Amino acid sequence: MTFRELLDKYRAGQASEEERALVEAELEKSEAIADYLAEQVEDALGAAETQAPAGEVRHIQKKVNRRLRRTAVWAACIVLAALLGVRFVVSPLVSSLYYQPNEKGFGTGIEGEPDPEYDAITLDLTALYSLIAPGDTVNSVTAQPEGFGRYTLTYELQDWLTGETEQITGTLDASKNGGWVRSSGSNYALATIDSMSGASRETSSTGQPAADYLAELPATSYVAAWVHFPRDLSPEELFALEERYNWKEGFTFLWAGVRSDEERLPGFVGFTMRGAPINSIAPSGEDYPMFSFYQMYREGSVPSGQLYEQHFLSLLSFAAGRQEAEDTLAWGQDFSAVLDYVEEHGIQVCGALVYAEAPDLVQMWESGDIDGISIATVLPSRYSAEGGQYSW
Questions:
Q1: Residue ranges of domains in the chain
Q2: Pfam family of this protein, just one (predicted)?
C-alpha cells in the first residue's frame, strides 16, 4: 500500500491503530521539514537584503511591485469579464428561455406597413384587454429589462367612459405566471346576470328592479350598463340590433360577451365593437385581418356582422398562439380552449356593454331586446364624461 493510499484511508477514518501512528509520524516529520525550510528561506532573504547594494534592493522592489500591479490588473480584468459575461451572455440566455416582451418584428402601422416600434408586450396587452377586460384601451407600453427574465413593466390605460388615464407599473417576472390582465372585475356583472337570465329580470346593486331604477333617474342621466339578451345572438344579429339603436344619440355598443366553456373559464371572453375607443396597434393584417378596426376604416370596409366575426377570431387566434404571454400576463385563461369551443359551436353573443341615456335603456328593456341589466356607472349627462365618449 502506498503512503497516499494509507493517507486516504487515514482521512476516511478507516486506518488501524498502527496505520494511524505511522501516518501521524510522517505528518510530524513533514511539518518539521517545512518549518526548517521556512527558516532557511527567511535567513537567506535577510542576508541578501543586508548584503545587497541599495540600488539592487530597489530594483528588486520595483520588479516585485510591477508584478503585483500586473497581477492586480489581470485580476480586475478577470472580474470585469465575469461581470460582463453575466450581464451580456448569461442574463440574455436566461431571458430567452421565457416570455420576451420586447420582441419585435410582427407589428403593422396604420398604413399596413411593418412598424418596428410595436413590440410583443404592446400587441399582447392590446389583444388581452380587448378580449377579457373591456372598459379600457391600452395607450402605451414599456418593458425595461432588469436581467434574468425580469422587467419593469409600465403601461397606460384610458377609461372608455371618462377618458381618465391610469398608469400601471410593477415588476414583470417572465418566468412566473402573472395576473396583469384580469376579467373578474370588468365583465363579472355579465357573467352574473347570465347565470340568472330571464327568471327574475335582473336588479341593480341597490336592490330595486333595474328598469324601475332607471325610470326614476333624470332623463339626461348617462348610464354604463351590462345588458343580457333573451337568447344568444350571432354576430350578424348583434350588428342588426346595434343598427336599430344606432340612430339614438349617445347610444353606444362597446363590447360583446361571447359564450364559451363556463366550467373552465372565469368571466367571459368577447370583442370590442365599433363604438369602443380603438388604436392602430395590430399584427400582420394578412395573418390577423380586422385585429384593429383601423384596418376596416383604412380599407373602406363597410361595418357588418362578418367583420365583427373576423375581428373576434383574429383577436382570439392571436392570443391563443401566444401561450407564454397568456401565462405571464393573464394567468388562468385558456384561449386555445375558447377557440376550440367557438369553432365547434360558433360565436354566440349573450350580452354587451353599452353606454346610453336612461330612457333609452328603459325602452330597450320594455321592447324585450334585453332581459337583464346590471348598472355599472351613472353620470349626470353624457357630456359629464369630459375626455371620454364624446371627445374621441
A1: 3-39+59-96, 185-379
A2: Sigma_reg_C
